[in-house]
Amino acid sequence: MKKNILFALVFLGGNLLAQTGGLQGTVQNESDSKGIAKVIVHVDGTDISGSTTDGGYYNLQNIPVGKHYIIFRKTNFYSLVIPDIEVKSGKNTLLNIKMYPGDESEYLFLEIGGIQVTAQRELLPEESETVQRISSGEIEHMQANSLSDVLDLIPGNEKSEHPGLGRKQQIALRNLNDPVNDASAMFGTKIIVDDVPLTNNADLQTGVGVNYGTSVQSTAEQQYDLREVVADNLKKVDVEAGASSVEYGDHTAGVIVAQTRTRNLPTRLKIKHNPDTQEANFMGGFKALGTDLAYNFNYGYSERALRIKGDEYHRISGSLKSTDTFWDKKLNIGQSLSYSRKLEEDNDASDPYGVKAYNRDHHITYSHRIRYNYNAVSGLYWRNYVDYKRRNSWVHKRESADLGFQTTRLTNGTEEGIPIEPSYFSDVRTIG
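The structure corresponding to this sequence follows.
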């Protein structure tokens, strides 16, 4: 009897040991194909973990048989999740991967059948269900020139119909986009980039500026022109069409919260060429004296009418961001400085009304943010910013009137009148 029990235990033990397998391979840097040391390799749902050697090699054993999510983590690299890796009984599964430089705390690269998709891993989402998020991976794979083009990914939103940079771009959430019939539309949807609200009550200044009869259109007393925000520099965009936090202040038609890229950006030059729009974007990042720095420079050009010279739009912009962390990442200090220059011209020499117009605006923004995390559920967040805009618009055009005559005669009779010209030129300028 004792022999039978001992045999059964040995059989079961050997059978259980046979229900495990191994996983091994290499982890390389995508930019130079060199092995990455000290990468944490973890089998999701288990307590099995390991780290890579100096050459980027790893070897995990005693993994339960079946399909597993394998997670790779390394500071200054995007966290990588490989789903459905099958571990077979008594065998070693080979898995060689490459990691991309980036922010390890924000994004995951999910590699499914050779296709890489960016996503965020949120076990307990903090936002309400009305928030729709657009990630950098989605933005990366579309030919977007500005924030307006990115918002095409949000269904059901009323946006300007003209893609590209040729016309002013605006969006309306939860309103008629009609300042005449909907008073809240004058404020429009609130646009916040890197904690700085780009739309505020100061934009409601009066003044004709340039608009009717010209391709150059003013945004005074209207919503924010989305062409100013460069798409390639965006890290993520949250669209809050429903109820949103009081943190965002006074708004009547939803909030769009955008964050630009930070930390460990690979240096690259991206050029886009479309029939009527050209764009060049240069971006990158580096670390200096313990500070993470990220920069972006952009030039965009659009020709509204290909057969007309002098009807064009230029966007020149640049940004610099810094991030410092202290006390085991409990204290985070960030600063950002951005500048944009809008040059919009309408000088069609063939126009019978002689219309000439321009917008030549400057926009400078500086922001400073401090975040201190006491623990996982509480912390302190403080921010301040300076936002300066200078508007310079002008329009010159021929005004039409009926042919008339002027006279000083006060009684019946005839007198030679002074002819009044049926047309004259007007100039309107707005500076503020």
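The two ends are 99 Å apart (CA to CA).
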